[in-house]
Amino acid sequence: xxxxxxxxxxxxxxxxxxxxxxxxxxxxxxxxxxxxxxxxxxxxxxxxxxxxxxxxxxxxxxxxxxxxxxxxxxxxxxxxxxxxxxxxxxxxxxxxxxxxxxxxxxxxxxxxxxxxxxxxxxxxxxxxxxxxxxxxxxxxxxxxxxxxxxxxxxxxxxxxxxxxxxxxxxxxxxxxxxxxxxxxxxxxxxxxxxxxxxxxxxxxxxxxxxxxxxxxxxxxxxxxxxxxxxxxxxxxxxxxxxxxxxxxxxxxxxxxxxxxxxxxxxxxxxxxxxxxxxxxxxxxxxxxxxxxxxxxxxxxxxxxxxxxxxxxx
Length: 313
Known about the structure:
Layout: H1 2-16, H2 23-44, H3 51-60, H4 69-86, H5 98-108, H6 140-152, H7 159-173, H8 180-194, H9 207-220, H10 224-245, E1 261-262, H11 264-271, H12 275-283, E2 290-292, E3 295-300, H13 301-311
Antiparallel strand pairs: 1-3, 2-3
Helix pairs in contact: 1-10, 2-3, 2-4, 4-5, 4-8, 5-8, 6-7, 7-8, 9-10, 11-12
């Protein structure tokens, strides 16, 4: 674990050399992460909005035909909750309070379940298809008191591990009737951002691995898979930021020796089309890319693979 965390810390230090970032890059990255976190976090919970539909709801305030009011509200709420945690980034982790967590949750369930938003559950809950046994509701207030004490305490642990542990501890207490995962992921990302890291995105395609890693940790006490998944998510986000400030930088994945990101021109060459065709695919929402300075400059390998697979259907 230490080797992975040291690698991430090294990337963070490399990124810090470029601060302050150009305003345009910051704006575009924040907008991209706001939509991407909303899309992926809600998708993990079963929301069927596509990435493009999520962007339309969050950025344009549009409704989407064929989608439920709840799904649209989930997108609006998550984006608002991300905006809220941005206001807490300048606080220290030790200054985070129970109210901050309840406020995050209240935004997540706003206009969806107003009776339970920002309130601990008073009923027993079970995770569908899981062997994990969640705490009795009578124990939730005490468990949350202990969680806040832990959250505010000093620790020599790496901040990435603390952020991952905060997420794991909160979802394991499962203090709310609904919205536990989204609240926990936002809390994790708040702690990461407070420490100068970009938010970590748990991708939709990693949903099963994510859920399985949580259950393995909760039922068997084996945390390795969970930590690896979270650390890899942090690593990807660091690469996205580094790619934005070092456009000429080509990240080679250490294990596979394959490109992690591709430029628009590289994708065009691989598909044997012109770059404008690639940009059109991105504008239509068919191909995911990181947009910086008005240009689509990076496409992640996993998204390119998925796009090529869909083209062949």
